[in-house]
Amino acid sequence: MSFFTYKGRSASGELVRGVMEGADSSAVAAQLFTTGITPVETGETRGGREVSASEFFARLSRPPIRTVDLLLFSRQMYALLKAGVPIMRALSGLQESSANPTFREVLGSLRENLDSGRPLSVAMQRQNGVFSPFYTAMVYVGETTGQLEEIFLRMFNHLEFQEAMRNQVKSALRYPIFVIAAMAIAIIVINLFVIPEFAKVYKGFNAELPTITKMLIGFSNFTVASWPFLLAGLIAAVVVFRNYTRTRHGRFAWDKFKLRIPIAGKIVLKATLARFSRSFSLSTRSGVPVMQGLSLVAQTVDNAFIADKVESMREGVERGESVLRTAMHAGIFTPVVMQMVMVGEESGALDDMMEEVAEMYQREVEYELKTLGAQIEPILIVCLGILVLILALGVFLPIWDLGQAALKK
After folding, report:
1. How far apart, in whole angstroms, are the C-alpha atoms of residue 95 and residue 362?
2. pLDDT per residue as tens digits for the range 207-266
3. Number of neighbouring beta carbons within 10 Å of residue 350
4. Predicted structure pTM score
5. What is the DSSP letter of 41?
6. Order of strands across the sheet that contains 15-22
7. For labelling, which of 102, 132, 304, 391 has a CA lying 20 to 30 Å from the CA of 162?
């Protein structure tokens, strides 16, 4: 994603300026149209507005705004608006009760913008990325249709679903990551501290060592002599990788690669498609046109490769093709999903069918996550067994040979 500066006119004719994140200028324009702003000029920039050094350090010391803050905000706004509380009073009450000082400032800024006569969706859009373009678009739809409280409830359910999917994937990957990290630490400790001590013992006997022992001692000597350079190289590789994945091309390549990782790739794909289906269902059900809905949904999937496929679907719909045909060309959905999309288009209940698709993918992800440990454990056990075998043969085989020689004497 890149940042774009824009100028536009609101529905009342007021000149609006700001910075927005998006895939390209057309996606930014689509977001602006959805929030009721007619874009006049857009241009790519390196980031948001410039900040002073004092403001930069102040931001570092402030707690970040988490998904749970947006969840609570959405749920509480729904409850307050449903009870008939005016929006300004609702925001004032939430600002006083918010436990996050950063989010408290955001709520204060929202009130100031509303006092200036701006709609809530435009006020949210001016909060430097706190509210996603999808969130602000849904709020705009709620403002124009008079169903703002219902939109807040739907956004609460939507954010809760996305957070649950992320947490499930993280919890499933925690065990294999821990085992791999433990194995890596064990290899480093053995190479730096254990094998050099054994090498001193072997050297005192002046005996011919097995080939595997020589290889272990040689690798250990290389690690001991070069560990500062290896550490610097590792840090440099991490920095280069992070900078590369922040570029548009790098993030696209990395997100595409993640979907091809054995075992984990299919889980990431299904979780991403579940988010897409739920977001598309929500936008369609809320009255957002299909083309604008696809542009907004492309920014919620959190995967540049899938987002590119969704953008290609939007382009196909702009050419007059059906959602089914564009989804078939995208090549990321299963035949069962294609059939459900076809039924949804023919019956005029595409939002309900996409909701069913999201639930189907969610069930599949939950099943895959439950069996992930059983799928990964054999691989980890085999790798651990190979590591132990190499170390046992390399370290203890010379001791065995020396013991045999001493017994013969």
Report:
1. 34
2. 677 788 888 888 888 888 888 898 999 999 999 999 998 888 898 999 899 888 887 788
3. 22
4. 0.68
5. E
6. 15-22, 2-9, 38-45
7. 102
